[in-house]
Amino acid sequence: MWMSYKDLKAGLRSVAFTTAVPFSDDRRDVQYEAYETNLEAIEAANGSLFIPCGNTGEYYSLTRDERIGVVESTVDAVAGDSTVVAGAAGSTKNVVDLARTYDEIGVDGIMIMHPDHTYLHEEGVRRYYRDIAARTDLGVVMYKRGPELSDDAIASLSTVENIVGVKYAVNDIQAFSHLVDRVDDEFVCINGIAERFAPSFALEGAEGFTTGIGNFAPAASMALHEAIEAEDFERARRIRNRIRPYENLRAESGPNNPFAAANNVPAVKYGMDLAGLVGGPVREPLVDLSDSDKERAETYYARIVDSGYA
């Protein structure tokens, strides 16, 4: 039985670990046992909110069976009082079908990925979310990465009973602040651009943030959240400043590449390898970190670990 929408909203007001998926060296297979071990390291640092099958989890490089397998492994691996919100994308029918399977597995909610379609109409986007929400009892989290899911659409969709929140992954404090003022206090707005701007977004109403580096430095992410909750922003900035170089590396394109943020997932996976976990290779259309970026990652990783999260 899925948790109540009230309990799901409470679970979302935390650090959301967008979990990376370890592949075999030839990239063909998901290493489910290693994946579950990686999750145990997050729980050991008191992480309790998990988002499998997001962008950090290379959703679009997974088959349908692999997506289901990753979600099932997540539910099996984490404690019963943890919150699992599984990612889904594609056609309305595809998302509803996945939501039904995820529900049977025992997730607490679904996160509908940012609209990915060559041709869009704003009213069609609204209908997409409304139709999905109407066809599942699970709580639904929207995911905004750009203008395709407008703030007007989010505000109107926030009144749907089982649309419980939004992962806001656009670095626009002004727009985010206006959105928070437009939605009900119970609707959960999550900072979706991770630790770099967590203090700023928190001041404007973000009640949690997503993390990628939490896959390999979960204690640092949790310490930042604790400092923000305690309104100890001096400590929060200190922790953020230790984390920021690694986050900046993730935002880079990598050498000989015109596309932004291609380092995002491979940098997370390399950090996991540095932490003694299993990150491993990425699948195409991504590539692994260059040797020079690996050297920088090692330096930045040491800064995070050596900080003591003070």
UniProtKB/TrEMBL annotation:
Pyruvate binds at T56. One of its GO terms (molecular function) is 2-dehydro-3-deoxy-phosphogluconate aldolase activity. SMART domains: DHDPS. InterPro entries: Aldolase_TIM, DapA-like. The active site is at Y143 (proton donor/acceptor), K167 (schiff-base intermediate with substrate). Keywords: Lyase. It comes from the Archaea. Gene3D superfamilies: Aldolase class I. It holds the Pfam family DHDPS. This is 5-dehydro-4-deoxyglucarate dehydratase.
